[in-house]
Design a protein that fits this description.
The complex is a heterodimer of chains A (567) and B (71). Chain A is mostly helical. Chain A contains 23 helices and no strands. Chain B has one domain. Classes of the chains: A mainly alpha (567), B mainly alpha (71).
């Protein structure tokens, strides 16, 4: 192992000491040990794919938010914060909290009562196999691509900070993830996500603490940013969104509110099976409703360890970072801001902890994607279309194998991510393709019993195709940006938001139009699937402190206060 | 967490992780006390107090969620 690590580029940010290597090695040993320990409990399909549906609200909630808090999040959003300023925090606040509360209060009962194993599984019940298959295939593609992004993020950290061989980093980590997920299924993935949650907080929280000490607090940091980047406003979340040209993102508030908050975030947090799968593992419906709400409180705090380090990078780093696409020798890209800050403040021991947190985040991101991929492939593609009747053990075995195959395929996609200025541009583009239209289809299906099978399929297909078309046109000819994103000044993330918005609108319009000219399904077939025909247990007998609604409203109030503070 | 399977709670594993890491980081911080590494704010000796915090939290988690041998 040491010999392989010794392949280094001439200049690296840091060199690991023995204690750092010991910290990293212990993490690998622990997760592999947990994977082998949990293998004995993952015997049935429900165990392997849904962790036996016996997780508490806290475990499911932490796994729910942690599945989204991988290295990708840390590196990508810290890079976006350096590039766009505090505007990147919108993806943690309006771009997450209302959607998480909405999932817990409104949508979770339908997922849970229908006893579906996945989001495509719900579409199978609501719209039939065509819509389910379309959703399953697009989701499978997205998870593989996302796994590739995680690998790329990992390779960046290892290359910049340690000078490790990229192939070594990718293969050792992928192999570890493959072993423990194939062993314990969703049990392993969730356990690792909870561990990773703690690791990330302890590994990353020192950066903002020490950074604020160095700059003399928030005001000192803002003053230094203004000194380093005169004329740009990086520290106001809303006041610069009145015009596209007033902020570094080229964003208008309509893009944040409607594109991000109402479509992209709602789509991701309520229909992306990667995160919804964690909530489906909850032991009862109250836990399932509470899990995303518990997660929302932690999600609100994540900018502290992701966005703030990016802003501190603007204030204290002696060099100016550049887009990855225009990187010259001796320069660093936006995505490397977090490793640079880590190297700035952390010596032996803490450095190992920070690196382990990033490695854990990467591995949890991989594990989340491949466990969701294995479930959707096995239950929504393989079982309905390739082998309808087989023993439960056969499907568990298929889940284990496609975990490993999914990992191998996703290695190839890692290189796709390298062509984007910011990792998050790539990710948001993917979400725009598949998640934004899916939200329209799922929501209409839950709230309007009149929607027909054909309407669901046509709407989802039209939304996805329109999204891919808009993305392609904007990449081929910049004049399309002014049309779809409403301004030629709209940058990558702003383009993604409007792309998602129009894709969802297209999906909804097509779904409504086709519904009006097709025959609805009988009410008897829709019980437990749509709002008007589902009995959701009331919580009148429980105290308000145990009600998901109370905590959901509390989360929204705190969100509003944060917006005012950072206006 | 597990009623059907009697799985060791994840919080115990969290405790083990924090305990081991806290010990390693605290020890490392104490070892370098007189010759701190060449980093910004090294004089604050962050590994010492951060490692101690992790050690204490890890100990609490390990004790509170120690697996029940009868289960």
């Amino acid at each position: 192992m040491t010999a392989m690590m010794a392949w280094t580029v001439p200049t690296t940010l840091v060199h690991l000491s023995a204690v750092d290597l010991g910290i990293i090695a212990f993490y690998f040993a622990l997760v592999l040990g947990i994977g082998f320990y949990l293998k004995r409990f993952a015997n049935t399909g429900e165990d392997f794919f849904l962790a036996g549906r016996e997780m508490t609200a806290w475990v499911a909630g932490l796994a729910f938010v942690s599945a989204n808090l991988g290295s990708l999040e840390l590196l990508g959003w810290a890079g976006s914060a350096y590039q766009y300023g505090i505007l990147a925090a919108h993806w943690y606040w309006i771009g997450a909290i209302p959607a998480m509360v909405f999932l817990g209060i409104v949508m979770m009962p339908f997922y849970y009562i229908s006893k579906t194993h996945s989001v495509p599984g719900y579409l199978q019940l609501r719209y039939g196999s065509a819509t389910s298959a379309l959703s399953a295939v697009t989701f499978a593609i997205m998870t593989i691509l996302m796994s590739g992004v995680n690998m790329y993020a990992m390779a960046v950290v290892m290359k910049v900070v340690l000078g490790w061989n990229i192939n070594f980093s990718i293969w050792v980590s992928s192999l570890t993830v493959g072993i423990y997920v194939a062993s314990g299924g969703l049990f392993s993935a969730i356990f690792n996500e909870v561990l990773q949650f703690f690791l990330i907080w302890f590994g990353a929280l020192l950066i903002p603490i020490l950074g604020l000490i160095e700059t003399g607090g928030w005001k000192g940091m803002v003053a230094r940013i203004q000194q380093n980047f005169p004329g740009q406003d990086y520290t106001h979340a809303w006041s610069t969104l009145g015009r596209f040209q007033d902020n570094p993102m080229g964003m208008h508030w309509t893009g944040i509110v409607f594109g991000l908050g109402a479509v992209q975030a709602m789509g991701y947090w309520t229909t992306d099976f990667l995160v919804v799968q964690r909530v489906l593992s909850a032991k009862d419906i109250r836990s399932a409703k509470m899990a995303p709400i518990i997660g929302s409180f932690f999600k609100m705090a994540v900018p502290l360890i992701v966005i703030l380090p990016g802003l501190l990078g603007l204030a204290v780093l002696p060099m100016h970072l550049v887009p990855a696409s225009s990187l010259q020798p001796g320069q660093y890209s936006y995505n490397e801001v977090l490793p640079l800050m880590l190297a700035r403040y952390c010596g032996p021991g803490l450095l190992g902890l920070g690196i382990t947190a990033l490695v854990a985040g990467f591995m949890a991101g991989m594990a989340g994607n491949v466990s969701a991929f294995a479930t959707v492939w096995t239950y929504d593609i393989y079982r309905p279309f390739l082998r309808k009747t087989a023993p439960d053990q056969h499907y568990v075995s298929m889940g284990r194998w496609c975990t490993l195959i999914g990992l191998i395929v996703s290695i190839g996609t890692a290189y796709l991510a390298m062509g984007f200025a910011s990792i998050m541009d790539y990710v948001q583009a993917l979400f725009g393709f598949f998640i934004a239209p899916l939200f329209g289809t799922v929501l209409l299906g839950m709230l309007w019993k009149r929607v027909s099978r054909a309407a669901g399929f046509c709407g989802l297909l039209a939304g996805t195709l329109s999204s891919v078309t808009m993305f392609t046109l904007m990449k081929l000819d910049h004049r399309w940006v002014a049309i779809f994103a409403l301004s030629p000044k709209a940058q990558g993330l702003a383009q993604d938001m409007y792309q998602a918005l129009w894709a969802c609108v297209t999906c909804v319009v097509v779904t409504v139009l086709v519904t009006l000219v097709t025959k609805p399904r009988p009410d008897e077939e829709l019980k437990g699937l749509v709002y008007a025909l589902t009995e959701v247990a009331q919580e009148g007998h429980t105290s308000f402190l145990h009600r998901p609604l109370f905590w959901g409203i509390t989360a929204l109030v705190i969100l509003a206060v944060l917006q005012i503070i950072f206006w | 967490m597990s009623e059907k399977h009697h799985i060791i709670q994840v919080w115990f594993f969290v405790g083990v992780l924090l305990l081991v890491y806290g010990f390693l980081i605290l020890a490392s911080g104490l070892a370098e006390w007189s010759h701190p590494p060449d980093i910004v704010l090294a004089e604050l000796h962050a590994p010492v107090w951060w490692g101690a915090l992790m050690l204490v939290l890890g100990l609490i988690y390990c004790i509170k969620f120690l697996p029940d041998r009868k289960a």
